[in-house]
């Protein structure tokens, strides 16, 4: 697999972590009885879809949604600050506006059915529409901050950039998670 590398990802660490998360997603999907197909470049770049997946008839022969194809955007575990030693899975970065002018970001501008958040043990598959509702419930959009350490439930915008992100605690995702793959 090859992946997109943002111009601000100087070391390539974020792109590599994202690629590893995508490979891990495929492994976990297969372990849980799902077939996967990597999305094409257009779907990836403009629709924010990394994979299409469906229940495998070999694992789920009687599933009501057998044959239904789902789409997902895979999100790797992230550091809270670039200076942190390791990525963590207790706080989740949510992109409210993308890095380019006019890019609505993956939450509001994406078309995927699910966002697959990587955890230390697997993935949380969260319906994107439910995530939008949860973010709008817990984030104070009027509160703007200047550092990632202040970004919990507030809007953080890096200096000189147009992207907007927020941090929410993983616990807020647990009651809207469709499936957890461990």
What does this structure look like?
The chain is α+β, with helices and mostly antiparallel strands and 182 residues long. Helices cover 23% and strands 28% of the residues. The chain has a six-stranded mixed sheet with strand order 1-2-3-5-6-10. About 3% of the residues have low confidence.
What is the topological layout?
Layout: H1 13-31, E1 34-38, H2 41-47, E2 51-55, E3 70-75, E4 91-97, H3 105-109, E5 114-118, E6 123-127, H4 128-138, E7 140-145, E8 154-156, E9 164-169, E10 179-181
Parallel strand pairs: 3-5, 7-8
Antiparallel strand pairs: 1-2, 2-3, 4-9, 5-6, 6-10
- Give the helix tally: 4
Parts with pLDDT < 50 across at least 5 consecutive residues: 8-12
Molecular shape: globular
Give the averaged pLDDT, no decimals. Answer: 89
The CATH class? Alpha Beta
- N/C terminus separation: 23 Å
Strand order of the largest sheet: 1-2-3-5-6-10
- By DSSP, the count of extended strands is 10
Number of domains: 1
Radius of gyration: 16 Å
Estimated structural class = alpha+beta
Predict the CATH topology. Answer: Trna Endonuclease, Chain: A, domain 1
Strand content: 25-35%
Output the helix-strand order.
Answer: HEHEEEHEEHEEEE
What share of residues is helical? 10-25%
Major beta-sheet overview? 6 strands, mixed
């Amino acid at each position: 697999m090859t992946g997109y590398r943002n111009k601000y990802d100087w070391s390539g660490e974020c792109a590599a972590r994202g690629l590893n998360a995508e490979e891990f997603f495929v492994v976990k999907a297969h372990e849980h009885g799902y077939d996967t197909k990597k999305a094409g470049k257009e779907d990836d770049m403009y629709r924010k879809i990394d994979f299409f997946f469906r229940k495998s008839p070999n694992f789920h022969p009687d599933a009501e949604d057998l044959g239904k194809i789902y789409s997902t955007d895979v999100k790797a575990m992230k550091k809270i600050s670039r200076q942190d030693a390791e990525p963590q899975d207790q706080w989740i970065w949510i992109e409210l506006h993308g890095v380019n002018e006019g890019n609505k970001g993956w939450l509001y501008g994406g078309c995927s059915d699910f966002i697959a958040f990587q955890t230390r043990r697997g993935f949380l598959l969260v319906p994107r529409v439910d995530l939008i509702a949860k973010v709008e419930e817990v984030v104070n959009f009027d509160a703007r901050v200047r550092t990632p350490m202040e970004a919990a439930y507030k809007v953080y915008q890096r200096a000189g950039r147009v992207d907007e992100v927020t941090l929410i605690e993983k616990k807020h995702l647990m009651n809207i998670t469709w499936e957890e793959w461990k």
